[in-house]
Specification:
Low-confidence stretches: none
Structural class: alpha/beta
Number of strands: 12
Number of helices: 5
Largest sheet: 8 strands, mixed
Distance between the termini: 20 Å
Strand content: 15-25%
Radius of gyration: 18 Å
Number of domains: 1
Order of helices and strands: EEEHEEHEHEHEEHEEE
Length: about 250
Amino acid sequence: MAESTIEWTELTWNPVTGCKKISPGCKFCYAEVMSRRLKAMRVGKYKDGFKIRIHPESLNIPFTWKKPKVVFVNSMSDLFHDEIPLDFIKAVFAVMNSTPQHTYQVLTKRSDRLLAIARELNWTQNIWMGVSVENEKYVHRVVELSQTPARTKFLSIEPLLGPIKSLPLNNIDWVIVGGESGHGARPVKFEWIDYIRQQCESLDVPFFFKQWGKPKFNNNPDDPTIDKEHPRHAKGGCELDGVIYRELPIAI
């Protein structure tokens, strides 16, 4: 368990680590870089770097939290990777089912496997299921997510790498959008973000704009949230036409 600086969660919990790249959004994978760093620091859990590993010893961690938490599950992996046994996925779900006081946010790029095994999992109210979508080519992930029994379904459109004009939001409860950050970050454009915002507004879907990624991508150089001292600071700033969008699907 670790405190998180991600704006839409509180903690991260990683019963699985490691992954493999499958689409353009993976190019500058934060988890891969962090895994190498943790391996160099001799953190035992990351002794194999970014190779896929399950950690049964981590399953009991949520039972130790004394207060309700909002938890990003597997920030350092993808729970629905083909190499992760179904029995272990079920074990992770069993922990989430048994700790209803916590809200769990699970995110995958492997929506095909998610859909294939979704009916074998127990989707309690506290499990939010999301998929990552970086451009128009991967909208099929949204369609597959919408067919699962997950009670709360969300999209992480980060990094947004191109315009998405055909975004099916009818069965989606929350949309997060963000630009790419870090060395070599690819640009994001205002019109790409604002189009998604308008689609969310028209369907009353909560919209969360996380960040521009870099100040040079931000169409407003005077955005006060670029300043690291600003209480709502995010990488590159996070205002959109002077508004900070931090909507959530339900009250937490």
